[in-house]
């Protein structure tokens, strides 16, 4: 017997971070969660699974219109034609209180109620599924504590949407602990809510499949469901089932060996080639991080638009419409050897000495804040919210900002032929 365990599908939730990209794959960004779910249904039918479990957050919230529900009904109809039942639990995003629109689902879809735990049974082999949906989005009760005892002689599966011991990256909904779940006596816990794939325990199995499709750069790497193989007595194997249609990656490029912006860009291009070779044919959305102590640091300083344009050019040349750059972050630093700067006696050396002391110079920081404040006051509110440095200027808290900017400014002025 095989079954699919999925969670956190977030149907029709948009992918974030590429919408401003001039050549962004608009259709893919708009329909990625649907395409991933369609692939999941394809995999379930091809594997002839006995059933599918969805452990919460099928939807991203109440529908804007009925199109989301119609799409889900079509996919459930495909499973119905294949004789595959679906056991559906609702989590915090699609809790009963959140959904203002509903459709009657095909007869193969069985939803767990929100008033108390429900149990469903299959036969040949005997399987019992137990679960309780969220009535309110902010459900902070330990729902697992009320789940029924296991059915004797059956493969018992607990379905639960939970933060599980307060996962730091997710709200602490329906909190519980692994020992509590183990004590319930079930054979498998099909969990949802945490978007990272994780097998918390084996025998009994406690599993987060992760979300079905990464929606932004904080959800990197393969995404999908799990395929569980079991017999009448126990779960034998749990395998990842990747179905994502666009994959997010963070690409760290060490610029330590580069001396110019052009060399940095070529290093990014080589890294792109390696990334694509490893990804096969799957489109990638990439955040580029430039790291290391590099002589090119000064040339990179203050040239973010040009650098991004160059990196996008590399992606266009290498990616063949499979590579999209979400952001380019410059995290380089000047070379660690500052001897050349220390031996200089020109204005750059004087500026370096001034900036080194600046974060602790209250009078200088006050003068700087007074000069910059009128510019910030004229900035639109959305810009202030998007750029945290502007908020620091408005508050007059400039020490950390000066400390961060000073090395790059000095390196920029010392390079490019500006020094002696």
Q: Ends: how far apart?
A: 76 Å
Strand order of the largest sheet: 4-3-2-1-11-12
Number of distinct helices: 12
Q: What share of residues are in beta strands? A: 15-25%
- Just name the CATH architecture of the largest domain: 4-Layer Sandwich
The major beta sheet can be summarized as: 6 strands, mixed
Give a quick rundown of the structure.
The chain has helices at about 25-45, 65-80, 180-185, 260-280, 295-300, 305-320, 340, 345-355, 360-375, 380-385, 390-395, 400-415, and strands spanning about 1-5, 50-55, 85-90, 110, 120, 125-130, 155-160, 190, 200, 205-210, 225-230, 235-240, 245-255, 285-290, 325-330. It is of the alpha/beta class.
Would you spell out the secondary-structure blueprint of this structure?
Blueprint: E1 2-6, H1 26-46, E2 51-55, H2 67-81, E3 86-89, E4 109-111, E5 118-122, E6 127-131, E7 155-161, H3 178-183, E8 188-192, E9 198-201, E10 205-208, E11 224-230, E12 235-242, E13 247-254, H4 261-279, E14 284-291, H5 297-300, H6 304-319, E15 323-330, H7 339-342, H8 347-357, H9 362-377, H10 381-386, H11 388-395, H12 399-414
Parallel strand pairs: 1-2, 2-3, 3-4, 6-7, 7-8, 8-10, 13-14, 14-15
Antiparallel strand pairs: 1-11, 5-6, 9-10, 11-12
